[in-house]
Write the structure tokens for this entry.
Amino acid sequence: DAGITQSPRYKITETGRQVTLMCHQTWSHSYMFWYRQDLGHGLRLIYYSAAADITDKGEVPDGYVVSRSKTENFPLTLESATRSQTSVYFCASLGQMNTGELFFGEGSRLTVL
Amino acid sequence: SQQGEEDPQALSIQEGENATMNCSYKTSINNLQWYRQNSGRGLVHLILIRSNEREKHSGRLRVTLDTSKKSSSLLITASRAADTASYFCATVLYSTLTFGKGTMLLVSP
């Protein structure tokens, strides 16, 4: 089915561990984004990518690493998880440039103990 | 920092009433979008209004944009219990969207 999927949907980890959140889209959209959603902060942009092998920082990139070796995948890695990274993470892809509509995944809820 | 700021933070109404949410922003935009998020789900695009447009309709949704005041409003007419959700405005500059903190709408039967 066409769409954008995130995995895992739920993850519990410990402080200091590495965690990778996966994101896969089937539309071949050029732009992809990672947001985190926290109570009181709304959605904040972590990283985005304009195309394969092109990534750029968003508002809150510290502690995160991304890669984009293939257009359809945009994984987000927390190299050494901290409790402040407990959040719900959303991946999104951008539809046609002239519509500007973002298509979101269902989110990955991460808890860092 | 957040670009869009929604007002009110929470809104509670009865079915059949209209719901109005406002969004203020700080800098230039290419367009402004509204999204809806049901509890525990991802955001879903509702409507987009370009910077040179003043009003747009889609079904029961009406969006206005006042670039001189840097503000937008989303009106949901004849609300239904199924409209209960959080609503976010997103300002768009080039290819980056910046979201506000959202308005939580509760529609009671």
The mean pLDDT of chain A is 93. The longest strand of chain A covers residues 42-51. Chain A touches chain B through 26 residues (CB under 8 Å). The radius of gyration of chain A is 13 Å.
